[in-house]
Design goal:
InterPro entries: PPP2R3C (IPR039865). It is found in: Cytoplasm. Its main location: cytoplasm. Keywords: Cytoplasm. This protein is mainly alpha-helical and 148 residues long. The chain has a domain of 75 residues: Recoverin, domain 1 (Orthogonal Bundle). It has 6 helices and 3 strands; from the N terminus they run H-H-H-E-E-H-H-E-H. A 3-stranded antiparallel sheet has the order 1-2-3. Strand 1 and strand 2 form a beta hairpin. The radius of gyration is 30 Å and the shape is elongated.
């Protein structure tokens, strides 16, 4: 059996060993931090003209790509026409409604830029207390205009 002093010495030895490992005294085998991608790049200084031009050009290309993803006026009009054509009766007051089946039909006809908006998740997000399981065409169209 170990004496109390031997137990304290052993405890102190283990404590020191683990403390040095955690503090970085010894290299541990865990190098997962090396796989984390870099996410911050400093802005180029005023005298780094090439880096500033590269940053401006990459920003312009990014904005052009994003603007091509947006729906233009003609595509929005087409979407409204399709939604109106496929509305599901009965109307609630003056508000046109659409059920999920017709919602999917419109999604097929609306074009590739609109595909991202015709998901079950978005339909469910806009579904409120309609007894027929429909969403408001106007609410959906406003959602597309805000997000797209």
């Amino acid at each position: 059996k170990k004496t109390e002093q031997e137990l304290k010495d052993e405890e102190m030895e283990l404590f020191t060993k683990y403390y040095m490992e955690w503090k970085g005294g010894r290299k541990s085998g865990n190098t997962s931090y090396a796989n984390i991608p870099r996410f911050y790049y400093r802005l180029p200084a005023e005298d780094e003209i090439l880096l500033q031009k590269l940053r401006e050009e990459s920003r312009a290309v990014f904005l052009q790509r994003k603007s091509r993803e947006l729906l233009d006026n003609e595509e929005l009009q087409n979407l409204w026409f399709l939604l109106d054509k496929h509305q599901t009766s009965p109307m609630i007051g003056e508000e046109a409604m659409i059920n999920y089946e017709n919602f999917l039909k419109v999604g097929e006809k609306a074009g590739p830029k609109c595909k991202q908006f015709f998901t079950a998740k978005i339909f469910a997000k806009l579904l409120h207390n309609d007894p027929y399981g429909r969403i408001s065409i106007m609410q959906f169209f406003n959602y597309v205009m805000r997000k797209g």
